[in-house]
Automatic annotation (TrEMBL), chains A, B, C, D:
Keyword presence, Transmembrane: no
Natural source organism: Litchfieldella qijiaojingensis
Protein origin, superkingdom: Bacteria
Protein's name according to its UniProt entry: Argininosuccinate synthase
One Pfam family cited in the UniProt record for this chain: Arginosuc_syn_C
Catalytic activity reported: L-citrulline + L-aspartate + ATP = 2-(N(omega)-L-arginino)succinate + AMP + diphosphate + H(+)
InterPro entries named among the record's database cross-references: Arginosuc_syn_C, Arginosuc_syn_N, Arginosuc_synth, Arginosuc_synth_CS, Arginosuc_synth_type_1_subfam, AS_cat/multimer_dom_body, Rossmann-like_a/b/a_fold
UniProt pathway annotation: Amino-acid biosynthesis; L-arginine biosynthesis; L-arginine from L-ornithine and carbamoyl phosphate: step 2/3
HAMAP family, sorted: Arg_succ_synth_type1
Chief location category: cytoplasm
Enzyme class: ligase
Amino acid sequence: MSDVKKVVLAYSGGLDTSVIVKWLQETYDCEVVTFTADIGQGEEVEPARAKAQALGVKEIYIEDLREEFVRDYVYPMFRANTIYEGEYLLGTSIARPLIAKRLIEIANETGADAISHGATGKGNDQVRFELGAYALKPGVKVIAPWREWDLTSREKLMAYCEKHEIPVDFSKSKKKSPYSMDANLLHISYEGGILEDPWAEAEEDMWRWSVSPEAAPDEPTYVELTFEQGDIVAIDGEALKPHEVLTKLNKLGGDNGIGRLDIVENRYVGMKSRGCYETPGGTIMLRAHRAIESITLDRESAHLKDSLMPKYAEVIYNGYWWSPERKVLQAAIDETQKHVSGVVRMKLYKGSATVVGRKSEQSLFDESIATFEDDAGAYDQKDAEGFIKLNALRLRIAASKGRNAS
Amino acid sequence: MSDVKKVVLAYSGGLDTSVIVKWLQETYDCEVVTFTADIGQGEEVEPARAKAQALGVKEIYIEDLREEFVRDYVYPMFRANTIYEGEYLLGTSIARPLIAKRLIEIANETGADAISHGATGKGNDQVRFELGAYALKPGVKVIAPWREWDLTSREKLMAYCEKHEIPVDFSKSKKKSPYSMDANLLHISYEGGILEDPWAEAEEDMWRWSVSPEAAPDEPTYVELTFEQGDIVAIDGEALKPHEVLTKLNKLGGDNGIGRLDIVENRYVGMKSRGCYETPGGTIMLRAHRAIESITLDRESAHLKDSLMPKYAEVIYNGYWWSPERKVLQAAIDETQKHVSGVVRMKLYKGSATVVGRKSEQSLFDESIATFEDDAGAYDQKDAEGFIKLNALRLRIAASKGRNAS
Amino acid sequence: MSDVKKVVLAYSGGLDTSVIVKWLQETYDCEVVTFTADIGQGEEVEPARAKAQALGVKEIYIEDLREEFVRDYVYPMFRANTIYEGEYLLGTSIARPLIAKRLIEIANETGADAISHGATGKGNDQVRFELGAYALKPGVKVIAPWREWDLTSREKLMAYCEKHEIPVDFSKSKKKSPYSMDANLLHISYEGGILEDPWAEAEEDMWRWSVSPEAAPDEPTYVELTFEQGDIVAIDGEALKPHEVLTKLNKLGGDNGIGRLDIVENRYVGMKSRGCYETPGGTIMLRAHRAIESITLDRESAHLKDSLMPKYAEVIYNGYWWSPERKVLQAAIDETQKHVSGVVRMKLYKGSATVVGRKSEQSLFDESIATFEDDAGAYDQKDAEGFIKLNALRLRIAASKGRNAS
Amino acid sequence: MSDVKKVVLAYSGGLDTSVIVKWLQETYDCEVVTFTADIGQGEEVEPARAKAQALGVKEIYIEDLREEFVRDYVYPMFRANTIYEGEYLLGTSIARPLIAKRLIEIANETGADAISHGATGKGNDQVRFELGAYALKPGVKVIAPWREWDLTSREKLMAYCEKHEIPVDFSKSKKKSPYSMDANLLHISYEGGILEDPWAEAEEDMWRWSVSPEAAPDEPTYVELTFEQGDIVAIDGEALKPHEVLTKLNKLGGDNGIGRLDIVENRYVGMKSRGCYETPGGTIMLRAHRAIESITLDRESAHLKDSLMPKYAEVIYNGYWWSPERKVLQAAIDETQKHVSGVVRMKLYKGSATVVGRKSEQSLFDESIATFEDDAGAYDQKDAEGFIKLNALRLRIAASKGRNAS
């Protein structure tokens, strides 16, 4: 195991990844570079510096990636109205490619030959980190301690801490919770604990980002979202950067009990797992984006997008952000968004984000044609007969041969 | 126009179709057979008999099709989690094929050579009626008065009534509304009026089937739905027929402010139109069906279904229920539903239908594998390395040739 | 019919379109502008000038569009390996959008308010011309004489000629043939005559561009095709423009009996029709393009392309080149072609175009990994176990629940 | 390694799998059951009995599976016009699920707890065998010697033979060839040797099943193929069983130089590999099947099939025959074949299989509509105008807003 000289670790500052720092130093006899990023998880990242230093780390990267995260990952994904398995907004999936990219860039900067992460061998995140890493630096060595070590229980982990004098308070995270959680600007997720029984309802005090719909205000909140080429650029007329948009929508959504989700999903590694998610801002964004598309996007482009979406969602969920197929899909999706600009008005109320209005200078909604009133010749109803007749022709021929019987 | 001997008309008993009866008799000098069906629109159908008789109709068909409607049309469609353009549950679309089928069957029974309907030349319904009719009886003549006559304004229509002594009270429908509405067991729709401005919010008193979320009870309602092979067969343990299921879910949903929708959609005839819909029961069903699938359906079957769904939705929306391609898609979808059985528990509260539990004897959720705790060897985490390595191989080769750069 | 002032006609110089010139002048009392293009149909276009002048046409457009045709239409289409219904290379379909575009451009230049063409009301070409025209100039008036006039038999047409003194020799085209034919640089097509019986074999003397395989040389011809980003740029090392490439490949293919096709296809207007096609160069191009992709294109991008291709083919066949959905698909396809460069070696022999070699600096074929010999550790066979195990996991869980029985 | 009691081995009777018998006995100290099947590879299978006995095997299965192979695997696959990556007819892929099924059935019969095969760790076949095995018997142990042992060179293998007295003549196969070959009734494949250079042309004497097109008869052969519900049931009017059909078509095709293929394909394990294939009968079948579909299959069903085919091909290529998603796709495909019956006439000549005629009582080709002559009102050309106008509507609206510019 001596062939690794230096490894860049995705370091949260928590107990587990602190143990990994020590374990890497010890097991591989190598230098460890830590990388800690603020992607909106809601915890301070700066304290990771002292912890890493205490563990003997010399090269410490601490970065605020919130804007890049939303601009280059969340926004492109939302252009496709991306949902995995009909429900999941991919909040965890979309954060991994950015981390993978920075791990590799830091490896290149620091001359490291390996990267490491704290994801287990059962989940999707290991796949996402590693596919990204291999795609960006094909010769990189990946170390996944959870697949290698024998610290397979809480007790063994604690014993290891004690032996290696890893400060106990590293574990005093705010995350005192029976759940395994993960958070970034797009969402917070919960797994494990009683959720391992899919029949059990999540406890109310599990949810951290949103009030319960029951506890939300009795008055609805209205908000206007301005889109440019598929992305939200302003809220109620105030221009905002992408991460500011999402931050504000998370607040609005959370206050109104919006964005809770409780699902069983199919992991790429082959098992079903139960997860709960809070995606307040994303839930609003998705609905609003569909609404602005509804008046600005051509029908066939919209249907084509819809037919590609499940594949695109799968690609992201499975960890192939840094793949050629994702770029191909993105090229198609981005092509559809050129005219997706305008304003959507939404009503937020006790768990629901409802579209109540949409307008755009790019609108293809033609009131003069659609009207139930006299349209002054904008549309000739007689055209419909030929339209139907020719669309029916193949059905009629088949029927005349005795097919199509009900 | 004398080549039509007898025509079967889809007759609602309302003013418009009553005018059509007279207009057909007069214009085509033919016998008119009326067909009025209860598909759950919430209005008595029996009164249509006297009205038809008053118009001189001799062959009058009045039928309760509610069970057939839900069993053979709504349920098969919901097996696919069908949504048009990301939002619309196809409440109007799915009722048309049944009407088309009965029109043709009655034409065959009565020796009629034509059918007729009251849909306009701008909408989707004319297409759905007529494609169905042609597919089932290729030589049938279709008469669409709205595309033919000159009664293009309310005034002309009223003048026609007066001239032909069509009783005034035919227009005293309960539908005193500025909106064009359509209802069946799955939904009620609203178009026209102020909705023709996509920026205008629908007025609260437009909605007929649901209370506003604001006015819904302050306490959530829990309900358990039992599925067999993809279809709901019981509510809270009580076995129900398909139309009874939907009737009950409509009540539960409506009482809790569930199922309102306000969208701009793309019609098959080429224009965008704005519609509002209430689909209380359907909204609950869709969510519940996804939930029961989440534990009983194989991942790849589920993803395959998801990729076919937009096409399936389009086929139904565009009126191709009675087409070979719909049957092909249905064969695929039905094949997936063999094990989609079990119970879903839902919480209904102020506009939201939330899944809080799901269980099944057919469950593929394997807690012993998914657990965060010790899995006693059910899953070997080391397998993940090879899995990732080979999935990454093509990406690594590409990267080694200088591709994939971020 | 007096609302048309000036109409641009797609004019071949043949008898039918000459009649149309006169019929338009007479029926619409309007000025006619003729547009005649060389797109490689193999007939002189300049003679059309005198004919048009003789008919009183003042604005006459005669253009050589061969390079534009291949560069901007044929090449982009071949990047997708486009085939309609498994067989047809879309030779007619792909020429129509260019003609439609020029008709509209000329209408704009000459101040014309209408366009006209000589396609019948039964075929696809009317749709392709008119969808293109409407997409590029929404208010244009389209005149399709074959759908309007009563010159529905050869006799009536001839009588019209005599009456209007349209010179008899206009009909002395080289196309003395019982078939309806259409040609451009990509193909020549045959319809009608004995082909209307799908069981009847086409007569040998019908084919005009290729010798029969039986009559082709007894020695194979080898040729090397150089691709850059998906397009052929050189043949046997000689750099050529797109239309020169296709001209040369047509010669090579035709001489070797390559590219004949005899099919029944499904028209957009709803009927099946039988057609025979010769596409010598295109047949070679398609095979060669697949071959260069086979070593330069990533697997998942390739599979994604393959899954989009049927839709793309349908879009082009149905006449939607100038649609947003075609642009979306093209964006995806073009994104895949960035590295599709290299050389393919083919053997042409008595009707077959066979790939015998392919090489590229962009090749992703890694001999050191693929080899059956010792690979010096380039690939760890043990990785396969984990790969298979996790891919099998969902199947094993299902099987353990009693599913999957053969 | 002592936990295996009895293992069923896919045994060819050749040297490699004979070594595996011994190696399994020695390494796992277990009983070995051999299974040898005739799936049309063109070699006697009975000699495998004596060889297995000589190796101390007590339970020996030797079976003729040719009919089952074609009827239950090849035929269903051809109903979909299945081609992998535009070229490959999946000759190897489709044989593996049957072998996997029989291995598991024999394991169940003999009380074996493991299966084994002679596929390497680099190829697709290991995946196909093992996914099948796991899907049908989730707890089975799979032993893949090539991934485990150290007999990684020909020398080591020979040394092992000598040491264990495995008769030398076991290696005297007819397959004296520099290529790795695999054969069954559908095809014979070649890999390795000079083929590892994708630029190198295969040597003429490599090909074993077909004469070269150059050496094929100078006179074409005509053949009539009768289909019932998508499957060939007779040749030139003679009723034949599925495997007899394929045997005869292989002879006809091979004699006429038909079915050679030289490609680079993308393996599921992530690498590109070069392979040459001879599929004489399959090449004829595919073309013929498309032809009978062309007159009997509805357009939209046909296009839907075409859009599903790449997925279906991928599923089979990757080894997921025994998966739920294959069954879903098969259900859709089989639904399309109900009327795919009739006769196709083909011309075989020097490498080409050309369709020259097709007829069917189920034909949807309607000459009275398609004709260029007077159709007596079967089709009203004026219908085309409305058809085009409404299909153009969305394009016109977009254009009127300044989009669609060329």
